[in-house]
Design brief:
Number of helices: 5
Helix content: 55-70%
CATH topology: 434 Repressor (Amino-terminal Domain)
CATH superfamily: lambda repressor-like DNA-binding domains
Radius of gyration: 13 Å
InterPro entries: Cro/C1-type_HTH, Lambda_DNA-bd_dom_sf
Pfam family, one: HTH_3
Protein name: Helix-turn-helix transcriptional regulator
CATH class: Mainly Alpha
CATH architecture: Orthogonal Bundle
Number of strands: 0
Oligomer: single chain
Largest sheet: none
GO molecular function, one term: DNA binding
Length: about 80
Protein backbone atom coordinates (compact mmCIF):
# COMPACT_ATOMS: atom_id res chain seq x y z
CA UNK A 1 0.00 0.00 0.00
CA UNK A 2 2.85 2.40 0.79
CA UNK A 3 4.26 1.91 -2.71
CA UNK A 4 0.88 2.81 -4.23
CA UNK A 5 0.69 5.96 -2.08
CA UNK A 6 4.21 6.94 -3.13
CA UNK A 7 3.27 6.45 -6.78
CA UNK A 8 0.25 8.68 -6.30
CA UNK A 9 2.36 11.36 -4.68
CA UNK A 10 4.77 11.25 -7.62
CA UNK A 11 1.86 11.46 -10.02
CA UNK A 12 0.46 14.49 -8.20
CA UNK A 13 3.86 16.16 -8.10
CA UNK A 14 4.28 15.69 -11.85
CA UNK A 15 0.84 17.19 -12.48
CA UNK A 16 1.65 20.22 -10.31
CA UNK A 17 5.01 20.69 -12.04
CA UNK A 18 3.35 20.56 -15.44
CA UNK A 19 0.71 23.05 -14.29
CA UNK A 20 3.37 25.56 -13.17
CA UNK A 21 5.17 25.17 -16.51
CA UNK A 22 1.86 25.58 -18.33
CA UNK A 23 1.13 28.82 -16.46
CA UNK A 24 4.57 30.20 -17.29
CA UNK A 25 4.06 29.43 -20.97
CA UNK A 26 0.55 30.89 -20.98
CA UNK A 27 1.97 34.16 -19.68
CA UNK A 28 4.40 35.14 -22.42
CA UNK A 29 6.79 32.23 -21.81
CA UNK A 30 8.14 33.68 -18.60
CA UNK A 31 11.40 32.16 -17.49
CA UNK A 32 11.94 30.28 -14.26
CA UNK A 33 14.09 33.21 -13.18
CA UNK A 34 11.30 35.74 -13.72
CA UNK A 35 8.84 33.72 -11.66
CA UNK A 36 11.47 32.99 -9.02
CA UNK A 37 12.35 36.67 -8.70
CA UNK A 38 8.73 37.72 -8.41
CA UNK A 39 7.76 35.01 -5.93
CA UNK A 40 11.10 34.50 -4.14
CA UNK A 41 10.74 30.76 -4.76
CA UNK A 42 13.13 28.28 -6.36
CA UNK A 43 11.13 27.44 -9.46
CA UNK A 44 13.96 25.37 -10.93
CA UNK A 45 13.93 23.07 -7.89
CA UNK A 46 10.15 22.88 -7.97
CA UNK A 47 9.98 22.08 -11.68
CA UNK A 48 12.75 19.49 -11.42
CA UNK A 49 10.89 17.72 -8.62
CA UNK A 50 13.59 18.37 -6.01
CA UNK A 51 11.13 20.27 -3.82
CA UNK A 52 7.52 19.28 -3.36
CA UNK A 53 5.50 22.50 -3.28
CA UNK A 54 3.29 23.08 -0.28
CA UNK A 55 -0.01 24.94 -0.35
CA UNK A 56 1.66 28.23 0.57
CA UNK A 57 4.03 27.91 -2.39
CA UNK A 58 1.15 27.16 -4.74
CA UNK A 59 -0.79 30.09 -3.29
CA UNK A 60 2.13 32.44 -4.01
CA UNK A 61 2.26 31.20 -7.60
CA UNK A 62 -1.50 31.72 -7.90
CA UNK A 63 -1.22 35.29 -6.62
CA UNK A 64 1.56 35.98 -9.13
CA UNK A 65 -0.62 34.78 -12.01
CA UNK A 66 -3.78 36.32 -10.53
CA UNK A 67 -5.67 33.02 -10.41
CA UNK A 68 -7.46 31.19 -7.62
CA UNK A 69 -6.35 27.92 -6.10
CA UNK A 70 -9.42 26.40 -7.74
CA UNK A 71 -8.24 27.61 -11.14
CA UNK A 72 -4.78 26.20 -10.46
CA UNK A 73 -6.05 22.75 -9.53
CA UNK A 74 -9.05 22.55 -11.91
CA UNK A 75 -7.19 21.01 -14.87
CA UNK A 76 -5.23 18.50 -12.76
CA UNK A 77 -7.91 15.77 -12.59
CA UNK A 78 -6.38 14.11 -9.54
CA UNK A 79 -7.13 11.74 -8.01
CA UNK A 80 -9.06 10.03 -10.71
CA UNK A 81 -12.45 8.66 -9.72
CA UNK A 82 -11.37 5.04 -10.18
CA UNK A 83 -8.53 5.34 -7.63
Amino acid sequence: MERKKQRRDEELLQKIILRVKELRHMHDHQSQEQLAEATELSIAQLESGKNFPNLTTISIICKFYNITLGEFFAPLDYPTKDN
